[in-house]
Amino acid sequence: MIEVFDTTAARSALARRMLRCPDCGQPLRPWGRARARTVRELGGALLAVIPDRARCTGCDATHVVLDAGLLPRRAYAAGLIGQALVAAARGRGHRRIARDLDVPGGTVRGWVRRARRSAGQLRAAGVQAVVALDPDALPAQARPGQLAYALDAPGAAAMALGDRFGVPHASPRARVTVLTRGRLLTLPPDG
What we know:
- The protein has helices spanning 7-15, 78-89, 94-101, 105-117, 119-133, 146-165, 172-179; strands at 2-4, 28-33, 37-40, 46-49, 52-56, 62-67.
- By secondary structure, the protein is of the alpha+beta class.
């Protein structure tokens, strides 16, 4: 999975073999399209998506090139999932979040559980990214609650990424998706 801010630019770079394999570093070449899917965005709009696929010229691995506003294997956009996680970090229950976002309660409960289970890994990934981008941007004070504490570092890294590389058009949640390589909800559990 390769998360990108601009799918049109990525498609052009892929055609010119300028995208590199995250596994071995060799150039990627176009290799058709991934399956079509419909994703629900924040506000309820439905988005039809057919991501590009790429194949490595070196190791023959295949990768899906996915817009940073989306998470792999999720029917909901990263912005909507991120809003649910932030609400949970602020102490709201999954039923209220689900009602506010018009998402099934079990779906929100699953997102929150996954994020809490891997909160340490999420925090560690965020701290690594902040230190690499701008060590001064690291949050100085821990917030109450495991999830809030875990979301602080990726949030700070997303802001540092925007400042350093000038990607103001990309939302902070899309930046977090890129920084976590689309694994916001699939990082390994702590421990």
